[in-house]
Amino acid sequence: MPERLPERRRRRRPDLRKLMIVLPSLFTVSSIFCGVYSIMLSSGETTGDNFYRAAVAIFFGNFFDAFDGRVARMTKTQSDFGVELDSLADVITFGVAPAILVYKWALYGLGFAGIVIAGVYAACGAIRLARFNVLAHAEEGVQRFFVGLPIPLAAGMLVSLVIALQRQRSPVDAFAPWPIAVLVLVLAFLMVSTIRYRTFKDAGLNPRTLLIFMLVLALGVVVAYRGRPSLVLLVYFSVYILLGLGEELFFGRRRRAAARERAAKAGEPASDSESDEPLLPAEEDDDVTLESAPAAAGAGAAAARARAADDDGEPES
């Protein structure tokens, strides 16, 4: 009697859905590797080449951080795990790595004061991300503004300065490091402030947007031609930061007055310090946008009173 041949097991096809879940996290982990590589370069020999490569590594981390959220939305694999991992990656790549870089590059000559200033920058970045995680599920939606300077842009400002001055071993050789120290402290303050910065998420494909894009591109070409190409990124980051400060200076009071008026119409007392902005800054993540928890509660209470008035003829007490 012939022997029965063993049945061939059918190979299971790989679950592409499970592979897509890992894809956004791979971008985030790549950002972590860029941050760690930058820290290793900054902690090594203090040469201009090492500082330049450390700055470029942070820029690559910025690239991966910008695309992990978009990849998650394209593959429909958003998760709380991805949000938490992204925040931890930002602390390393845009908090710790730039702090060590700017300390070894410029603040080393200040001694203990330089350590404190670099630590303040990293701490403000961590505080911003931690407070975002606390309020991440308070309210969802898409905003036209960031509340506070996003930490990747703060890090971009520092590393673009390092790249712009890459020809020098250290700015200490040319001038006192205190201007750099002041800049680091200003960026730390802007991260934890409630100053609003545009996200440009509402910018559609229209003639006005194309005109602004061409003007920005022309500005970069002029700076690269009349100065150095390494100054282009520094100018772009500076213009963005000044744009937020200018809008806060000219339109901040009007916005807060409108917020108090809305609160008064809702039947809730509003002090002079209240505004439509949250007390805690929102994070730059593309998936979640934060609003003030008290404002959300007030809006819910107003809606409940309106429904009660429609049903019973008088508002609830």
Secondary structure layout:
Blueprint: H1 16-43, H2 48-74, H3 80-105, H4 112-135, E1 145-147, H5 151-164, H6 178-192, E2 196-198, H7 207-226, H8 231-265, H9 293-312
Antiparallel strand pairs: 1-2
Describe this structure in words.
- The chain has 317 residues and is an all-alpha fold.
- The protein has nine helices and two strands, in the order ααααβααβααα.
- A two-stranded antiparallel ribbon has the order 1-2.
- The chain is globular.
Largest sheet features:
2 strands, antiparallel
Number of contiguous helices: 9
Kindly identify the CATH topology: Four Helix Bundle (Hemerythrin (Met), subunit A)
As laid out across the biggest beta sheet, the strand order is 1-2
Features:
disordered C terminus; mainly alpha; 2 strands; two-stranded antiparallel ribbon; Four Helix Bundle (Hemerythrin (Met), subunit A)
Short description:
With 317 residues, the protein is mainly α. The protein is built from nine helices and two strands. It has helices at residues 16-43, 48-74, 80-105, 112-135, 151-164, 178-192, 207-226, 231-265, 293-312, and strands spanning 145-147, 196-198.
